[in-house]
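Each field is set out as follows.
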Amino acid sequence: MRRILLRADGGAKIGYGHWSRCFNLLENIQEISVILFSKNADEVPLALLPDFVTLNAITSETDFLNEVMPRDIVLIDHYEYDQVMFHDLREKDALILIIDDFIHKAVDCDIIINHTPGFSPMKYMYVNPGTCYYLGTKYNLISSIFKGEKTWNSCRTENVLISMGGADPNNYTCAILNNLKKMKKNIHVVIGDAYEYDNMLLTMIREQPQHNIVLRKGLNKKELVELMNQCGIAFLSASTIAMEYAAVGGLLFVQQTAENQEYLYKGLLEKKIALDITEWENVLADKVLHSYLECIVKQKKAFDGNGSKRFKKIFEELFQQRNIKFRKASVADTSATYNWAKSDVIRKYAYSREDIEFDKHLQWFTQKIRQEHCIYYIALYEGNAIGSLRIDIKENNAIRSEEHTSELQSQLSI
């Protein structure tokens, strides 16, 4: 079983979004065992915890770092990381992935994931130059279960969904419901187990008997996607639930309810996947059909349903990388490098395509591995030599050259 170490926090005060989106990301990765390290482990809802995840309560980052083994894959989704953590993870030669939609700190990682629509890597100013970016809705952190027809349906627009997060500590739910009291539609209000204003909300519902208001609490993913498909209009926080609804499709109004939602909120509006919540009255007065169809078109473009396949490929490559190590090249590698260099796969990309004589290769190779300004490594996969990496440094420039065995080309996606 292939293991992934997940460092993420959540709870009643900050919500369950970090845990939820990490589980969504990993749900289609096969043959994995995930260990979740959290300072709020006692607040993880058992209904949220997938079968492939084991919970490990920690009191400090040291507790987590002590469990990291060389070449472990580490996924981080919380905001307390610092350069000390990155240094310690690098010392352990871990592969580091970060889900970062806040962009408030310098990061030293191998992969950054941010599903904010239209997000540019240029916004990350303090990042390791070798970092890979997986940005935008193609790499959305929602479950593959969230999908819909994305077509006009007048019956759907008679049903309205309101959900401002599982905890909604500032009680935007009641504020929105109060603003919609003149709306003559069926209203479905979804809250989480951490919502603390139940009594106020129930009072508001009783005071609006003219409306058909249905209160739903603690829905699972299947129940939520069914409700989203019923509701053609939604008022949601600019969080993962807005992305989930956009994947289903409908007229979406969003509100920023937390500081870390800034970029997602702006991205949803800029790409016209959603409208600002302040526009609802004007839109619903006489622009429902136009706005609905405009949202649907943008949502179709943004969510192609292949996000889980992309992440599956990324993680398969990461698991392969775990088993790849490098050592310095030596004279003993002459025959192997000669065979790689003269293969048809390598020759068609070579500067010179003439046949190589072994004696000339021996002379060239011996010189290269002794040159001060040449870095020459042999790549090992599960202990077997599979290729080489050479970097020639000239003044301020570095030229990289690679060779590998043709037998493992398809297996290692190279």
The chain has 14 helices and 17 strands.
